[in-house]
Amino acid sequence: QQEKEDLQGKLKLREHLSQTAGKSEATPAPSKNIDLEMKQLQCKLKNSNTETTKQSTTIKSLKNQVQEKEERIRELQAKISQLERDLTMKRHLIEDLRSNLKANRENEKTSNETLKSLERKVKALAEVKKASIDSLKQRFNVAMKEKSQYEQMYHKAKDELEKKDLKLTELESKMIDTECAMTDFETAASQQLHGLAKQSAQALETLQKELLLTSDKVEEFKTFVKTLTRELHHSIQELRTKIKLAKKMGGMKPCKKGLSQECLQLAASILNVSTIDLYEILQEGDDEETAKTKREFEKDKEWLQHIQELLEAQFPFASYLMDAILEKLNEKEKLVEEYSSLMKHT
């Protein structure tokens, strides 16, 4: 965009020069050169516009890729949380089955104790029958009834015991099956979690590479802005020096050894110094001019510091940076106009 603004300024300057050349009835050969330069500048302007559109499309595509990868990470995290919930539910189910198994074992113990007590009672009855057969003959029918009842109770207890044994074996087989299923499920879940962790690590690695690439681009942009500001500052300083030399040369008398711009450049090349240093040598005790130069130097220093602070500040700072650079460009344009007017008068 800055290059576009420079090209537009150059086009306006070329148009102004072509108009002034037409008014002053210059030769036709320079106007053709100016038209060619205007066409070249227009071509450069079109190329810069296409380049900016390409860069904006690439930025949009990169943002879409980052959003898709973030949605993928969220989906993977949701799946991991769902698997963890399923695992905790399975663990609770296993604990319930174990508690039921303990309860069945306790019931089995109680049934065994009742069976033993019944056996002891049968033995006691048999001893009582042997000891008092005569007394029991009268109560034989009652004893037979009680015996039949006890036998029925015994058979019932035995049948219940067999049923509980069958249930116990079934529960043991089910417990073994559930343990096998849990081991299979744990292995499958661990494999799935390992795969998901690997995929998430790859996704994070790609994101880190993209972030490094974007940070490199940001650093490149900062170096571009810094070099641009340095070049702009240097060009403005050169323009100020040229304006001061033009003013100095315009104020000098013809008798003062016939000094001119070519003479100053020749003297600077002979003395092996720059024209700026030569101008400072010629500027003998001009306090007002030195004070103005110091103010301009301090102002330029503050401007460079402001550009550095904008680059180090948080987003967004593009509008502030644009305003600062446009301010310097306007100053440069004014200096160019002043220098051109001075050169016309001289």
Provide a descriptive summary of the structure in words.
This is CNTLN protein. One of its GO terms (biological process) is centriole-centriole cohesion. Residues 1-17 have a biased composition (Basic and acidic residues). With 346 residues, this protein is mostly helical. It is built from eight helices and no strands. The chain is rod-shaped and about 165 Å long.
In short:
One of its GO terms (cellular component) is centriole. This protein has 346 residues and is an all-alpha fold.
Order of helices and strands: HHHHHHHH
The rough form would be described as: rod-shaped
The tally of beta strands, per DSSP, is 0
Mean pLDDT: 79
Q: Any idea what the radius of gyration is?
A: 51 Å
Report, as a whole number of angstroms, the end-to-end distance. 36 Å
Structural class computed from helices and strand pairing: mainly alpha
Task: Give the fraction of residues assigned to helices.
Answer: over 70%
Give the helix tally: 8
Quote the beta fraction.
under 5%
Described by strand count, sense and barrel closure, the largest sheet is:
none
- Unreliable residue runs: 253-259
Chart the SSEs and their pairings:
Layout: H1 2-23, H2 28-131, H3 133-138, H4 140-251, H5 261-271, H6 275-282, H7 287-312, H8 318-345
Helix pairs in contact: 1-2, 2-4, 4-7, 4-8, 5-6, 7-8
Please supply descriptive tags for the structure shown above.
0% strand; single chain; mainly alpha; 346 residues; CNTLN; 8 helices
